[in-house]
Structure formats: structure tokens, C-alpha cells
Specification:
By secondary structure, this protein is α+β, with helices and mostly antiparallel strands. The chain is built from nine helices and 22 strands.
Length: 433
């Protein structure tokens, strides 16, 4: 049994589960690094090793295993030698359990990177040491670092890969460290960890390498094992997006009506005074029903049916909050958008907006600015519409009122996506400012 099939892997959150994503440009070595972590931590089976050693798309010489094939499983990925879709892998050490997302580096698949990064605690940004010329980082390194910061990822780890190809040169590493420090200052990244390594040879991946006596920090795995990522979501304000109204016994006077969903944040107890947003109607929690019976309290992450004392009008898309800490209710708000569609933003069109369990229509009222991904500064965006992979600030107006929080405070009610009404493609990922 491996980590993917072991039920204990997902039930041992108290031992610490770290979700991380690898990001960066094409050919920086993201898939190889994950393969190295799996291989050196004994996280793969012998038959898997045998299968990739015989793969026709193997890009290594002789008997050397192409570890990137452990995550690049699609035929098109192996044929082209690039990652296209996000691949998830699971492994554990005696210290911690890991869920790794291998994100594509190609600009065309930035949307896939956003998907994987939206739930990550740590972003490992890979930089190919051979491709940083005169201290100029690649565009995708800048874009992925910006997105990781906007998505609120707590820890940024910069892995300077392929150091073996520059003979483990400390001056090369120092130039890259200084270049990334300048990037972090422009983006707003308060702190980051940086280390030299080689995913191909395994130096500084699982254990410290003798080839970098000048590097005094930990190896990558030791660093990941010791990062503090726990956040007490139950200590935040209550946000309970209603997924469904449960009814039975409707022909009786004592019929059952409860509101089903999962607590996105906060906690709720029997007797609590709550408010249904966006309507603002107040009620009292009568009971909390879970699989197996009734409980007195539910916390963030729990799936529960909330029964109220009062007969109120509440349905899918509404949000239950405590009266003392409501969300902001509005039909117009400012947000940061990452445009993901091949069709450019059209301010004259309506888009579907999905926020939590609420689906409504929205229009872009105005485009405030676009982030120049090369200079990392906000620029005027009135000259051209947002195109694919553009990042910027806009003002949106929605048909229905929404219960919103700032994304930095509560991602569950601060995040949304825009959907093209005609094609049903995801047009943009948004974060409420």
C-alpha cells in the first residue's frame, strides 16, 4: 500500500500535511525534482521504476532513469517533453506527509498552474541556473512568483536547479539570489527561502551535498519538513456557504428542513445567532446534524446540516455567518484578475461569476490597471483589453448581491472565477481586493 491508497494518509492531519506546488519556466526541472523527491524518499514502487526505464520517450542517457516521467504521464507530455496538466503525487516521511502538484511551466498552461496553486501552502519556484543571463529572470519565473503571492501562498522556496551545469559556482548562485530578491521586493513577497541543488543528481534535494560547502542551509526535503504551515481556520469568522436545502416529512407539521454544506471557516454551536447573507435575515441554530447523529459544535472543514429555529428564506448560494462578524454585501467590488481565456476580455459582454456556491452574472465595469509582467509594475490598461495570462485590477458589477471578504482575509468568500457564457470556458480567476 502506498501513500495514495492508504486511508491514514488523509486522516492524519494532526501529524501535518503540507501541500506544495512546483512552478517556474519550461525546462527548469520541475517534474524531475518531484521525481527525485519520490525516488530518494522511497515513494515509488519497483514496477513504476521499471515502466519509466523502458519508456520510449526517455530523455536520459544509458540506464539513467528519467524521473520526470513519474509525473508527466500524458502521452502528449512525454512526446513533447513538457508538462501540460497539473499532476498530483503523494508521499510521506517520518516527519510529515506531502501532497505535491507539478504545474506546467509553459505560458499557454498558466491556468493549470493557478488551479494547483490555489490550495498550496508552499510554492517551490525553480530557476535554471544556466538560463539566468546578466541577472535577468525568465518571464514565467516572474509570472508564477506574482501569482503565488497574489494567491496568498505562505512560503516561497526558490530552488536554483542545474547547479551541476555551472560547476556549483557560488557567484552564479549569488547573482540569482540577488535577482530574485529584487523580484520579491517588486512583487511584495516579504521573505523567501533559496537553495542550490541539482534535481538530476539529487544534490541538496533529500540530503546535504558535499559539493556546496559554502551553502549553510538545509536540503530541500529538510526545509519542507520543518516549514510551519498550520492555520487555524476555525478561529476565523464563520462562513458557511449553503450547498443544498434538505427536506423530508413535508406533509407533517414537524417536517425537517436543514441547510447542508461544509464550513469554509470558523465554527458554529447550537444556540448561536446567525445571519443569512445577502438577505441579512437573522436566526438561531437549533441543531447540527452530521453523519451518525447530532453534535453540539462544528468547525471549519466539517460537512454538516444546520437546522434553524426560525422559518427563513435561505437557499443554495446564500452564506450563513455570525451576526457579530458578517461579510460585506455588495453588487460592485474591486478585484485582481488573472485572465485565462484565449479570448480577450470584452467589457461589453456579461460573464458568469462563480463564488462559493453562488452563480450569478457579472460585467467588467472598468479596468483599473494591468501588471507589466516584465517590469512588475502596474500600468494603464485602457489601451488594450486583457489577453491570456494578463494580470490586473478591475471593478465588477454583479446581478445578485454577494457576501464578500478580502481574499487575504478569507479565501473561501474572497475568491471567484469568471466563466464565458457562450463557451463555458473559465475566463478568469479573481481575488477580491
Amino acid at each position: 500500500m502506498n501513500a495514495m491508497t492508504d486511508p491514514a494518509f488523509f486522516s492524519a492531519a494532526d501529524k501535518g500535511v503540507l501541500r506544495l506546488i512546483t512552478a517556474g519556466s519550461v525546462d527548469d526541472g520541475k517534474s524531475t525534482l518531484i521525481g527525485r523527491l519520490l525516488y530518494d524518499s522511497k515513494g515509488i514502487f519497483a514496477d513504476q521504476l521499471d515502466a519509466i526505464s523502458r519508456a520510449k520517450y526517455k530523455r536520459t542517457v544509458g540506464d539513467t532513469i528519467d524521473l520526470s516521467l513519474l509525473t508527466d504521464g500524458l502521452e502528449a507530455e512525454r512526446e513533447q517533453g513538457i508538462t501540460i496538466d497539473v499532476a498530483y503525487r503523494y508521499f510521506s516521511t517520518p516527519v510529515r506527509k506531502f501532497i505535491i502538484a507539478d504545474a506546467p511551466g509553459h505560458e499557454q498552461y498558466t491556468r493549470n498552474m493557478v488551479t494547483g496553486a490555489s490550495t498550496a501552502d508552499v510554492a517551490v519556484i525553480l530557476i535554471d541556473a544556466t538560463r539566468v543571463v546578466d541577472g535577468q529572470l525568465l518571464t514565467q519565473t516572474k509570472r508564477h512568483s506574482t501569482l503565488a503571492h497574489l494567491l496568498g501562498i505562505r512560503h516561497i522556496v526558490v530552488a536554483v536547479n542545474k547547479m551541476d551545469l555551472v560547476e556549483w559556482s557560488r557567484p552564479v548562485f549569488d547573482r540569482i539570489r540577488d535577482a530574485y530578491a529584487a523580484l520579491a521586493a517588486k512583487v511584495g513577497i516579504a521573505s523567501f527561502h533559496i537553495l542550490p541543488l541539482s534535481a538530476l543528481t539529487g544534490d541538496n534535494v533529500v540530503g546535504k551535498s558535499a559539493r556546496t560547502p559554502w551553502y549553510e542551509g538545509p536540503a530541500l526535503l529538510e526545509l519542507l519538513e520543518n516549514l510551519e504551515v498550520r492555520t487555524d481556520a476555525s478561529a476565523k469568522a464563520l462562513r458557511f456557504p449553503i450547498q443544498m436545502v434538505a427536506r423530508h416529512g413535508g406533509d407533517r407539521a414537524d417536517d425537517f428542513r436543514g441547510y447542508m454544506g461544509q464550513l469554509a471557516s470558523g465554527s458554529v454551536r447550537v444556540g448561536d445567532r446567525v445571519q443569512i447573507q445577502p438577505s441579512g435575515v437573522a436566526a438561531t441554530v437549533k441543531s447540527l446534524v452530521v453523519y451518525g447523529g447530532h453534535v453540539e459544535e462544528a468547525v471549519a472543514g466539517d460537512s454538516v446540516t444546520i437546522v434553524l429555529n426560525e422559518d427563513v428564506d435561505a437557499s443554495r448560494g446564500d452564506v450563513l455567518v455570525h451576526e457579530s462578524s458578517p461579510a460585506s454585501v455588495t453588487r460592485q467590488f474591486e478585484a485582481e484578475l488573472c485572465w485565462l481565456d484565449t479570448q480577450a476580455l470584452n467589457p461589453a459582454r456579461k460573464y458568469l461569476l462563480k463564488q462559493g456556491t453562488r452563480l450569478t452574472t457579472a460585467k467588467i465595469k472598468s479596468v483599473l490597471s494591468r501588471r507589466d509582467i516584465h517590469e512588475l509594475e502596474e500600468t494603464d490598461a485602457t489601451d488594450a483589453p486583457f489577453a491570456m495570462n494578463d494580470i490586473g485590477r478591475v471593478v465588477l458589477a454583479t446581478r445578485d448581491a454577494l457576501a464578500l471578504d478580502r481574499y487575504q482575509d478569507l479565501p473561501a468568500t474572497g475568491a471567484f472565477i469568471l466563466i464565458d457564457e457562450a463557451t463555458h470556458q473559465t475566463a478568469a480567476a479573481g481575488m477580491v481586493k
